[in-house]
Structure formats: C-alpha cells, structure tokens
Amino acid sequence: MDANGVTFWMLSEGEQFDFTDGNAIWDKRHRVLRLRSERFPSGLAADRDTARILANQSPVTLDKFGTFAALNKERSQVLAAGTLETPVPIFTAAAGQKILDMCMGETDVLYLAVGQAEVQSSVIMVDRRDRWPPEKLSAPDFIPDRIVARAGGGAWALDRGKKRVALIKGTPLPRRPLKEYWPDTARPCSENPDPPLLKPREDLAFPKEYSIVALAANPKDQTAVLLWPDNDTEEAVILLLGDSGLSSCVKLVDAFTPFAVGWVGDECWAVMFQGRNEAAVYRIPSDKPPEEVLMEGGHYPLRRGTSPPWANGPFCNSLSEPAFYQASPDGIHLKPRPLHSLSLPALARTARIRAARPFDSGAPGTIWHRIYMEASFPPGTGARIYLSAADDESFLEDAPRMEHRFGMLPSDPASAEADVPVCGWVTDASEIPFHPGMLNCPREKDVSGLFTVLVQRPGRGVRTLRGRYLQVWLELVGNGLSTPRIAAVRIYAPRFSYLDRYLPELYRETEYGPRADTESTATGADFLQRYLCLFEGILTPIEDKVAAAHVVTDPGSAPSEALDWLARWLGLTLLPELSVSRRRRLIAEASRLYRSHGTLRGLSLALDIATGNRVSSGDIVILEDYRLRRTFATILGADLADEEDPLMMGIVASGNSYVGDTLFLGEEEKHEFLALFLPETAESPEERDGMEEIFERLAHRITVLVHHETDTEELGLIHRIVALEIPAHVRTRILTISTPLLVGLSALVGVDSYMRQRPARRPARAGVSCIGRGDYIQGAGSLDPRLDSGPPVTVQPGMRRPIARAADVESEIGHSFTFDASDSEAFGDRKIDYYCWKFKNRGD
Q: What distance, in Å, lies between the first and last C-alpha atoms of the chain?
C-alpha cells in the first residue's frame, strides 16, 4: 500500500502463471519468466526392435577419479582403464555366467548383476579397496538385470522381466588380522549391525501397461526409470524412484523410442535415440512432476571417436553430473565423454501466458490504476500485457483485452493508430520505498530495471478500466536469439485521482455507459485525468519515501551503505569482515550487547552475531575454566547437573565418568562422598597450597573451543571479537578441536564431539598424521588399480585376497605395527607371516 492507500497485486512466482502455450517457462534459478528454447531434434527413429538391442548393450561405469570399466565381448570379465591405455581385468565371472549390468557406488563398491537373464542372476559386491571379499546377494524369485548406485551408498536393482525393484544396502565386515577374539573380549550381540541385503520392495509397483527400458541415478539420490508403453503410438514416460515411492508417469512429448537416460543437472534428464548424434533433454521437477514435459531444446552433441561416427551407445552407469556417454563401440578403448550443451540459442519468438487466477479487488467498479514491471528487455525483445476487467468473474473471458506495451518491440503501425500505451523506464529499483527490487541484473536505461505504465483502454472515449475482477495476459516477444526476462508484475488499484480529489466537479468526467465505451478520441476530462497522473506517478513515490522514512533507521531494512552511519549513532565500529546480514544484526542487538558487555553472556552474544549463530548451534563453546574443578568421578544418584555448564549442557547428573577406579556408587542422601574431594581435606599445608594453586590457575580464565573446520578468516574474526568483549583481568585462549565422539574418553556433546555425519576417512599423510587419530593407510578405491601404483588383481566370486604387505594390514586395523615372522597362519591359498603383532605405540 502506498502513501495514498492504494494497494497492489503481484505476479512473481511460476505457480501464478498458466503455461498452456508451452513456449514460455519460469526460470527457477534466476526467478524470471522467459521464452523457452524451441530447438527440437527432428527425424527421431521409431524402430523399437533396434532400440531394444541398443538398450541392452554392454554397460560402462565410472568412478570419482575418472577411471572407468567396461565388459569384454563375452560379458564375462570386467576390464578397467583410465590410468593407462591398456585395459586390465579386475573381475571374472564364474563359468557359464554373464555380467548383465554394473555400476560403481560412492563407497568404492562395484555392484555387478551377474547370472543368466530370465533364468538366474544375483548381485555381487566387489570392494575396490579390498576391505572384504566379494559378497554375493540374492532374493527368491528376483532376477536383477539392471542396477544403479545410490548417492551416499547402496544401490537399486531392477528385475525388468517381472517389473520389480529391490534395495541393496549394508556392507560386509572388513577382514580381521586374527580369526578369533580372546574369550574375555567384549563383543556386540551381532558382529555386523548393518549386513548386506538385497531386499525387494513390493510396495513399489510399476504400471503394467509399460515395459521398463533403462534407468539412471543422479547425485541427489534420485533415480529415473525409462518406460515404453505397450502401444507403440504413444510416447515414452519417465518415473522418478526414491525411498518414498514412485512418482506418477511423466510423458516425454515427441520421444517414442529413447533407449537410454542420463542426468545433466538442474532437474534435467537426457535421453538418446537411435541414429542420432544428439541427445534430447527434458526438465522434470522432482517435487511436482507434471503429466507431460516438452523438450528443453539446446544442442547436446554426442561426439564419437570412430569414423564414420558411431552414435549407438548408452549413457555410462554412474552418479556423475553431467552424464557421460561411451566414445567407442566397446566402451573401453576411448575414455567416456561428458554430455554438455553448446551455446546455440534458438528461442521461441512469441509466447502467450495468462495469470492462473484473476485479481479480485473486492469492490465493484474498481478503477485499475498503474502497472509496474521489473524486467529486462534486450534489443529486439519486449512484452505486451493485456488486461480485461468485469464485475462478474464469468464475463472476463468475453471482455475486451486492453494492450499495454513494454520493451523494445518493433514498430507496429496498427498499434500506433490505436494509441496503445507504452511504458516508461523508472530510475529507482522499485516503486516500493527503499526496496532493492526483485530483478537480479544490473539496471540499464530503457533495457533493464523498473518500467511503469498507466492502466488504460486505448482507443476509447473514456479510458479508465473498471471492474472488480482483473484478468492478466502476457505476451513475450523475442527475436530468436534473445528473450525478455520478467521478474515481477505489480498492478495497483483503485486509482488515486488528482482530478477527483483536488479539482472542482466542473473538471470531472461526464461520459458513462455505451458512449464512454465507443471508439473515439479521449474526452477532455479523461485526458486531464491521465495528464495529472503523470505528476502523481512522480510525486507518490516521493511521498512513499517520506512516509517510510523510519525504514532508513531500521537496521533490518536500511540500505547497506547506511549501516556504518547507523552504527555511529550507537558508538559501534563495524568490522570489515562482517557480512551485511551480520552487520544488521549487530546494530539491532547493540542495546543487549552494551548491557552485557564484559560478561560471559555478552561474549556469547557477540560471537553468535559475528559467526552466524555458531555459538547457539554448538560449533563454538565458551568454557569458564573454573568449571574444570570437577572431580574425575561419578556419584550415582547425586544431582550435579548445571544448566549453565557448557560441558554438560544441563542434560546429565554427573561429572566426568571413567568406569574403573574412579567410579563411586552412592545414594543421593550420602553427600559425604563429596567431602573426600574438598580442598579443606588436605592433611598438610603443602597439599593445601597445591590444591589452592590448581584452583587459582583455573580462576579468571576463559577457553573458547572452535570447530577445526573453521577457516582462517573466521578464526581471526573470533580472535578480534574475544579481544573486544573480554574484561582486562580475564585471560583467554582459543583452541580448535576435532576429536570425534569416544564413549568414556571424549563424550562431551558440543565440546569435543559433534552430532553430525561421520566424516570421510582421510588417507595417512607423512609427517602429519598421528596413530589412532582418524587417518588411514588405504587405497583410493578406483576402478583401475594402477591408479594406486599397485599390480592389477583379478578377483573371482568366493576368492579372498591374501594380506601380503604390512600396509595392507595397517589399513585393516588403523594402526602401525612391526612384523614378527616367527609363526605363520594359513590364509586363503597362501601362508602369510602375520600372526604375532607388536604395536609400536603400545609395546605389547
């Protein structure tokens, strides 16, 4: 609402438009309405028999290091390459078995569908880091012939013949250096809490009238399943598969026989066609999949490495973004290539969109006042807004549509004769006082920014547009290479008329009814009213700024360049490291900071503001060292909880607990146990002096614990904030911590442990890593074993690779050791001297 009490209705979201026309889209990334590409591939083949053969071609998979694997001609062996040109075998199927499909998972596990299609098959998990031997999984009456990895671990297996899907999860236990534990060693009830399973999902049912062709996954844990309808005159469809279930069928318009699908990013899936050196891309929203989608357009070429060009290979089976495709018929002699779009704009030239619902002013006979549009119009592009108004919503479709022009549209003599209103460019980013605008691009006169025009009925005697309901149509006009981009459209009503408010009735409009609606030149009163609206359009924004002057002094809405000026009012100095949002919060919280300056609460608040709530979230913990005066004991039943203690967070009833000599059992009434740890119980002056020295050393001290992932710039900011807020008599230290949760050793939630996802294992680094501190001697887990400079090892089902090197055993137990060759142990088909271990840092 502006200073005159005039309100507005706005179009600024994709859901507010009806895209029946199909030539315009809502760009979610840039939040603009624009023309879509109309470059559709033509001459798509529709031979299902050939496409079905192409869909069953030998698969290729990639890993995160760029190495890849393919199958030999017999599909009995997996060949890896990428490090060197010559491929090496890494897996051989059992006699009489074939490899139907394979994919590389995120956890360095190669999943293989091995067996005989339509007869018997199973899934084999091959660990590329050799932590455990190949694991075979199967399920009754389930024949997996397609398999894709899931983001984060695990995979989906598909039985295309029976249209069933199964979830693969869990991992086997790693190899152990010793076969048996000592009898007094405590072990869990189940040795493996997450065993590998192939679990069919009977709740996920595919439609019976479709046949499954291919599937692909993306890094966002979404899986697309490509299906053909039994009726070959209908287009193919895609289903999105996830833990929550299957989405509805999404029809791919103009795609009848695609044989492969792959992910290209931004909710876009690419499909391949027979005999085409180009992929077609469809955008399928995962939150609300539509009934059908059109091709996105754009040029996605498939470059092949043979002559003549070979263009019949499917996408590689991986979680990469974008999808990779095979570059040679065998998939192994040339490295797969990524699918990228070339800059070849071919946009639709026009598009007609309407608002999904008409605007309702709530008052019959409302005069619609002014249009404001935030948009960008490159040369040769523009937009037309058509408005129709009526007091009865059912009459809107038949009401005449009034044109308003925006942008750089080519000259139209017919429109010029009809006196169509044309917009004007406004210097401000928005007509709303001190608003930065919704268009995310630089403002340029007559090209981009804010445009406005008075709502009119061109060619009528009285040009005011009246009606309770208002229907909006937009027509986007481009030149094939550029498109207009509209971020928001705001329409104001009712009109605040200077003529009706400030001039005598002598000057008011006297024409009404049919005479006002006839096509003729404007009446004198109508002209005068529109003439005065020129001044109103300039003066109202000025009045709005005066009425909203308090916004400039509000730290939440003041312009960013005014924040230093506001801070000086309060005696604050804004650090240059602070972002704009944190500067605003610092000014807003200034009174609280001044009241608690020099206290623990004030330091916590200052750090919370400067770091973006990292204190309240537990990433930064402020500890008063005197709280370390607790006994290293647990008195069961005693209430030692302290809600203000950052070490205990008010959630426990004990101090540090170590099961052993310092664990005391007692009752709540027997507080005499506490007396054993009081300083007054010291027997000699030396003991009392020593205990007082310890207590004194912990007084007037503050320790700030910061998560080890904090970058250097923010760590420096924390140092500056602490120096500004801490009293002169208090000494501080800032420590970075990274210790994970270790029950009994480091179990202080929020201090030396964090409830978050398990961090990835880091490889051991010479001169940096410490034994037992989270770094491991491990392989890269690549498909091509030569990436680790090791000899290629071909594994077979049931084979256990011998642990032949000290580095291999270190990777299994996470510690360094010395080798004692005085004994030997049978392991697989070889005898390896590894029985007696001497841990260097333990001495036993």
A: 80
